[in-house]
Design a protein that fits this description.
Elements lengths: L8 H6 L6 H6 L6 H4 L17 H5 L7 H4 L7
The chain binds iron/sulfur cluster (2 copies).
Length: about 80
C-alpha cells in the first residue's frame, strides 16, 4: 500500500493535477486524487505529473494516475 495522504487545504493548494495533460484531456473538476480517490469523469490518460508535485514528495508516494487508480493508501 502507498502512504496515506491527508485531504486538507494545504495539499489541495499544492496539487499540480490541474496542470497535467490527462487532467486537461479529461476535463476533471476535482484534484488531490491521491488523497480523495478516483476522478468521477472518464480518464483519458495522456501523461501524469504526480512525481513533480510537492505532495508526492512530502508523502513519498510511488504511483502514477491516482485519478484512475484511486487513493494512494488503497493501491498496491
Ligand atoms: S501527487 Fe498527484 S494527485 Fe496527489 S496532489 Fe500531487 S499532483 Fe495531485
Ligand atoms: S493523478 Fe496524475 S494523471 Fe491524474 S490528474 Fe493528477 S497529475 Fe494528472
Amino acid at each position: 500500500m502507498g502512504n496515506e495522504v491527508a485531504d486538507n487545504q494545504e495539499n489541495e493548494q499544492l496539487c499540480i493535477c490541474p496542470e497535467c495533460p490527462t487532467y486537461k484531456a479529461s476535463s476533471f473538476n476535482g484534484n488531490v486524487f491521491c488523497a480523495r480517490g478516483k476522478a468521477s469523469e472518464e480518464v483519458k490518460q495522456s501523461g501524469c505529473y504526480c512525481p513533480e508535485c510537492p505532495v508526492y514528495m512530502k508523502y513519498e508516494l510511488n504511483h502514477l494516475y491516482y485519478c484512475l487508480k484511486g487513493k494512494s493508501a488503497e493501491i498496491n
